[in-house]
Amino acid sequence: MKGYDILGNIGVVKFGKGDSNTRKKREALLIMKSNKNITTVLEKTGKFSGRLRTLKTKHAAGINTKEALYKENGCIFRFNVDTCYFSPRLANERLEVAEMVKPGERVLVMFGGIAPFAIVIGKLSEADEVVSIELSRECNKYALENVKRNKLQDEVEIIQGDVKKVLPKMKGKFDRIVMARPNLKDSFLDSAFPLIKKNGIIHYYGFYEENKVDELKDLILNEAKKSKKKIKILKIKKAGDIGMRKYRYRVDINVLN
Fold it and tell me: What does R_g of the chain's alpha carbons equal in angstroms?
């Protein structure tokens, strides 16, 4: 067994290649025994893939379900493990971003998923409005449920659609934009820059090897130049590892004009 993630009531495990079904079953039951909150263990049989970042798992032990109920930062989320991307490893990241939000801000979350960023921000900050946009209809369904579950109907708005098509139709600009983007070639900064207020902040997430972080910085500077935006990069920080010497980075960008 290579390790596992805990998603509330579900443990998602990556077993070794040569593990027999008997050994997998035994280890899955041990996970449930050592973590009383876990009632289901799923075996991870594929990586997150595609634009919607879906996962492939199969039942290993416990209740046969793929629907997780997960709690973090005083919030609660329900989602399907296979059809909706969710990383519990970003819990501290979501808290950190929420703590940066100032009272009265209008916040946009792009690639919002089941709305964890939007809901944590809506719950823990004094933002005036939080808007979350997600392409997946399945994730959007859970996002709407999660907003109600956390009693944030007046604070968080959920929009289903492609950000490239949705953003040009939006009215007004935002004080802060969270770009919790998937690992795609498109930076989507050309869609974000027109909607950020003067002196607003963009939290941009990129996936790079440790020795290629300068490429991330150059990308942002070039995209800003194309959009005729003056920017100041306030901070670049590791926001979690995603592979061998490859990390998710968060770049805090101050847009000056």
Answer: 19
